[in-house]
Design goal:
4 copies of one chain form a homotetramer.
Chain A: H1 13-33, H2 40-47, H3 54-57, H4 61-80, H5 90-119, H6 123-149, H7 159-177, H8 186-200
Helix pairs in contact in A: 1-2, 1-4, 4-5, 5-6, 5-7, 5-8, 6-7
Chain B binds a DNA duplex (21 and 21 nucleotides) through residues 10-12, 14-15, 18, 39-41, 49-53, 55-56, 59-61.
Chain lengths: 216, 216, 216, 216
DNA sequence: TATGAATGAGAGTTCATTCAT
DNA sequence: AATGAATGAACTCTCATTCAT
């Protein structure tokens, strides 16, 4: 266990291309077969290179997944960032955060599942998953703290407990969501989770749904 | 994939003893090494029997885990049942549910993690995990519906969304909790999650913590 | 390899019954699954006794087959014996021999096939098969010698070559026959093989078929 | 059961060499130990490669035997072909056919025995053996039909019966022959079987042996 | 760089046989 | 005599990784 690490960067343009096509192909294969059921040959075949070539760029199967993860994590963060200039009331900001989080999660759900499979076996991915989650937990904590400081949220809630709980609520919903794909209306989910989120920390929430926004 | 199934019940007392010691030992081994890293030999060694004896009772590694799961699921349900006669206000009942859930989860967290590893690879365990979770989701949904019917909870919340979300909040916290073992005070966690749970669905919650109960 | 040998005769009546039912059941199982695909458990199950009981009567799987063979060989010899008092012309006698041989072979074809499978692996059965065959080869040789002495058959034929060849002709036909079951008319086969047999050694044969006998 | 199939052709010269040496070695090993007693490790050891290398070229033990069979079947057919331009009388042609068949069979007897062992267990080889035999049966049938059409052979013989019987006669002799190796004079065997063959179908045969031909 | 051949540790499984009860 | 639990040798096959070309 406990491997990973990214690996020898290629020098030539040709090398860069080969490596890139490996990462691209690997993503498809991992999504289709999961981590442990994917063999190095699968990866090589999908990229149209020979068996041994994979080892030119990656020291181990884990390293290939790590490279794929890099891309995924980047995409998730990009998708999730709420524009700083969104000057809006707290609930609207929470809604926007949830909306983006759910959307990003849905787009990468299968890949995140794969990483979690790898995490059951490999320290590196365990930390990666924890780290990714930690970012959102930190965001939730600091949001809560700000609201508490502003006298908007219940000051007796411990952010170290409430933070993970709130993230867990949204994440866990998102995780199952893509399984029951199509069952729920996206905006209704956002609205419901947002109101629960807000109320849970003591924010006052009007009864009526937020009218907002385009569909994902 | 997709195996499991429980397996041939032994006939004699001696056989029953052997099978039992295998299941006992397997639980320790699985908790220590996870599912995929455990070999049949590990299980045999831990129970002090020979390699082939395991196959007398279990047709495959999955079947051993399935047998362990049976025990675990039973224990979880037993630990979680809230006495019907607990005549108390809604929040106290929710608190009691969460308290038991968190305690049961903490006691079996490692094993549940192992099952989840197996679930990434085997349909049988995927369904087992989903089924277990489903029981709690259903409970949450019906609790919510009752409160809505009684005019205590926000009637505009869709139980199909709120239910999974609430279970996810508690479960996801429990799941990480055992990792950060000792960090949090159990009653404070129960209290915090309970207030969030209750408020999220619109129940009125007094500011002060529940004083209740013995520590787990 | 090279095992076999029959095995400890049971003393009590009950033991004799158990042993007998094992042999009976074994015959069915061997015919259904062949030798190597049959396990001791199959035999025990079919006889309705426990796994270990088989070893009370037979030291090894081969010994069970050997016991079945005893019965089969006895039946074959019984079925094949041409009544001494059949005073008839040579060709009619040959016909009768072929008729009985083909009939006996057809009745036991599957079992003989099984023994031959065992013979590829076990010296004992190789000798059994050779011995059985040898009996017929000797008969053919002595028949030929008698005809040669009587001036009826070609005296230049070496019985050591012609004997096995003639037996081979009939046996090899019988062996495939039961596969193409129903394709040929039994009497026509007897007649054809008999004429070839007789002519091959130089006996004069009338053109018309033998009118003989009831159908099998 | 029912496997076989030939397998991945190697690409490089080195691969071709390795595969070839595996097939060569396998032939020796199979002849020495039979099919079921040969393990993949035996094959690897005999070829001087590692365990897993065998699996680079053959997906299973059956596939190795299938590859050996390819070679053997080819050799048998090559050895057996009677030159079309052999303008000779019927009996001489039959003699030449038998001579070549016996010689080819003798050269490959042990291997054919091995294949027959495999055939008792594996559909693929059963069909291979049947197919090989079928070729000779068809040849015998058409020979007989031609002689019948030319008025040389007994027209009342059914070729569907006589054909397999004649092939069986020669094959069965050949099969045992290699066991009693050296006992018989090859030309005498050819002569005897040929006269029996010819007479059996009603061809007129002079009493004296064919003087013919070099020894095998 | 790229190829593909070669390696070998290790896993799961089967089953004839032995043995305690 | 009968049972069925226990054994363990043996076998097939997989695949991450190394290496010669």
């Amino acid at each position: 266990m406990a491997s990973g690490g990214v690996a020898a960067a290629p020098i030539t343009a040709r090398g860069r291309r080969t490596r890139e096509s490996l990462v691209q192909a690997a993503r498809d294969v991992f999504e289709a077969k999961g981590f442990s059921d994917t063999t190095m040959s699968d990866l090589a075949d999908a990229a149209g290179v020979s068996h041994g070539t994979v080892y030119t760029y990656f020291p181990a199967k884990e390293a290939v997944l790590a490279a794929v993860c890099n891309a995924v994590v980047g995409e998730v963060f990009a998708a999730v960032r709420v524009p700083e200039d969104l000057r809006a009331d707290p609930v609207t900001r929470i809604a926007e955060g949830n909306r983006r989080y759910l959307r990003a999660y849905a787009a990468h759900a299968r890949m995140l599942e794969v990483v979690e499979q790898a995490a059951t076996t490999d320290e590196y991915f365990r930390e990666l998953v924890d780290g990714l989650r930690g970012v959102f937990v930190e965001k939730a904590k600091s949001t809560l703290r700000r609201f508490q400081a502003d006298g908007l949220a219940d000051a007796t809630l411990d952010p170290d407990i409430a933070g993970p709980a709130l993230v867990g609520m949204v994440e866990s919903f998102a995780r199952r969501w893509y399984v029951h794909d199509g069952t729920f209306d996206a905006e209704q989910v956002v609205d419901t989770l947002t109101r629960m989120w807000a109320r849970a920390i003591g924010l006052p929430v009007e009864h009526q749904q937020s009218e907002t926004r385009e569909q994902p």
